[in-house]
Amino acid sequence: MSDISKAGTFKLGDRTVKRLGYGAMQLAGPGVFGPPKDRDAAIAVLREAVASGVDHIDTSDFYGPHVTNQIIREALHPYPANLTIVTKISARRGADASWIPAMSPQELTQAVHDNLRNLGLDVIEVVNLRSMHGIHGPAEGSLEPQLDTLAELQRQGLVRHIGLSNVTRKQIAQGRGMVDIVCVQNQYNIAHRQDDALIDELAADGIAYVPFFPLGGFTPLQSSTLADVAQKLGATPMQVALAWLLQRSPNILLIPGTSSVGHLRENLAAAELKLPADAVQVLNGIAGETEQAA
Questions:
Q1: Phi-psi category of residue 43: left, alpha or beta, with phi > 0 → left and psi -120 to 50 → alpha
Q2: Is the pTM of this model over 0.70?
Q3: What is the pLDDT of residues 11-61, one digit of tens each?
Q4: How far apart are CA 150 and CA 63, in angstroms?
Q5: What pLDDT was estimated at residue 165?
Q6: Identified catalytic residue from 22, 63, 188, 209
Q7: Complete DSSP assignment for 252-282
Q8: In which band, very low, low, confident or very high, does the pLDDT at 291 lie, cut at 50, 70 and 90?
Q9: Is the preceding peptide bond at 78 cis, omega within 30 degrees of 0?
Q10: Which of 55, 66, 63 is nearest to 13 (CA)?
């Protein structure tokens, strides 16, 4: 079993969590919709994660919808005292599995109550407001009404801390001017580094940054470069991608997802992978590679 404590820890709200966590999105069915093919396997992955030392699970009630949270509850409730569950709100699913913005005060309030009920919690440690001004990436637009709603739910004791997801720098600044933001969750990986400066600024302020899609959007050349580095290190491309993120900044928390116990163990082993300087240099150049350069 891997020692994930070797990846270090970082503050998330009032808690200090290990930097290598688990994302529950893949526990739902295809397209993050409907039940998994093997519910018992999904339960086994969650229990293996916690048994391996994972103390930070990222989820949402719009995964399924409701499916992943219900599986988390079945697998892990009553929860270990040190387990931090983070969810996100602001979307709902259509009957065709589409992603539909759900950002009204009523929809956000209902979403928090749905998460509480399906997870079996009295209070959610961290709720990320996912901006739906852009469904597939950040887009400008005020989040003031949504943050006002979350702040009220926080005052009611239903939400302990607030984070932001799929957001621009302007939206982060707006959010931090209204409430205490404890984390930002955006797409970021070796190939997509638009948030480089933001990560460093958040680190200076003690705010966690949680990247998603660690292997998302790579060109064939970029994937080939990553695979070459992984082969030389005797690791998988995913392990190298995760290790690079861990070495990129101390405030980065990882939530790789999988529905396989075997893949979970491989991902967690990234905590013990130390990338040598020459490998980091090659990986740092991936963001500038294009297919035309091949």
A1: alpha
A2: yes
A3: 999 999 999 999 999 999 999 999 999 999 999 999 999 999 999 999 999
A4: 20
A5: 98
A6: 63
A7: B-B----S-HHHHHHHHGGGG-PPPHHHHHH
A8: very low
A9: yes
A10: 55
